[in-house]
């Protein structure tokens, strides 16, 4: 068993639901995870009586999952801990189409790209669920049944059960229909594909609950309606709220970029900082949704936010919990140590080199085109000016003279001092500081 697998099993075994709640449904509601559902009383009863097989779909429209997907993964895990059986669907078929976006038509990716992303998402999902035991998770791909259907079979056996009048009333479809761009038949048919997925999973595995974001409600109910028409059975759908910040802005965006779960697309340091910077008004709700802390523990942090917000204890706990969940405790510890060394002016040489390099890469970067020396060399003055920490060379010299400049947390005493790859971390990265709080990175480039 690999060390990664051992760490995953250790983390999963430490997770539990809060026993202070009457049942899992009540806990989901308290955590703010229920925005809309089919018959609430019947769904609560079903989840309380015995084991329910349920699924959530993840489309490979990118090589990584993001924070919106993390909400669904944790929802699935909470239900699994309550004794229910999860099925994670990675949409090799629906990923070739893409669900309609709010604004414009999706660019269709090639089959090869989608297949590659399917594999990537499957590996990302695996650590969040247990694939052992009586209610072990199962991974499925809707390409397995969709690829076998001809267009005629699809239209005759599935399409005939859908009414266009109902389909065009779906929120996103209606919005796109009234836009300048409109909507293609390809994206319009997405809800039929997703409805068929639910029908197939109901038939193959007895699945009676599908979860997803509330913005997918039209797609979720397309499946419940299809099963009712074809099989005469009533099944359930559960829509989680779209999480937004207290100021109304979209959650999970950082300077226009999604917060990805893949460490190559969003470094563990950037991931940690995202959570650490959570506003006081949002942090308690984030603890409810993204951690397994109990109600009592979260209420304690809520009181700390009210009494001593400047200590940011709730944000520190949130950042630790979610980063450890996504990237492991060891990586999270390294990120914290690197952050403390960089922002606290500590000993950078004692920090894990790879983590430190990632931290430095997140800082504003020097413009190497302003350097005049040999490749891989730069003076203190050039560093200060090219990073934008000062406006001119004369200001750079004054800063050095006044003792306000440092490189790699060592004070610079000579404005003309030359730094080379021998001075850099990983042979290329430098930390440039003006005063205590103004910092930037400088990349000397590959040697």
What topology emerges from the helices and strands here?
Elements: H1 3-14, H2 24-30, E1 36-37, H3 40-49, E2 53-58, H4 67-81, E3 85-90, H5 111-125, E4 138-140, H6 143-146, H7 151-158, H8 164-167, H9 171-177, H10 185-188, H11 190-205, E5 209-213, H12 217-231, E6 236-240, E7 253-254, E8 257-258, H13 268-276, H14 280-290, H15 295-307, H16 313-327, H17 329-344, H18 353-361, E9 378-379, H19 380-386, H20 393-401, E10 405-407, E11 410-411, E12 418-419, E13 429-434, E14 438-443
Parallel strand pairs: 2-3, 2-5, 3-4, 5-6
Antiparallel strand pairs: 1-6, 7-8, 9-12, 10-11, 10-13, 13-14
Helix pairs in contact: 11-12, 13-16, 14-15, 14-16, 16-17, 17-18, 19-20
Structure explained in plain terms:
- It is a single chain.
- The model has no long low-confidence stretch (mean pLDDT 93).
- The longest helix is centred in the middle third of the chain and has 16 residues.
- It contains 20 helices and 14 strands.
- β13 and β14 form a beta hairpin.
- The strands form four sheets. It has a six-stranded mixed sheet with strand order 1-6-5-2-3-4, with helices on both faces. A four-stranded antiparallel sheet has the order 11-10-13-14.
- By secondary structure, it is of the alpha/beta class.
- The two termini are 38 Å apart.
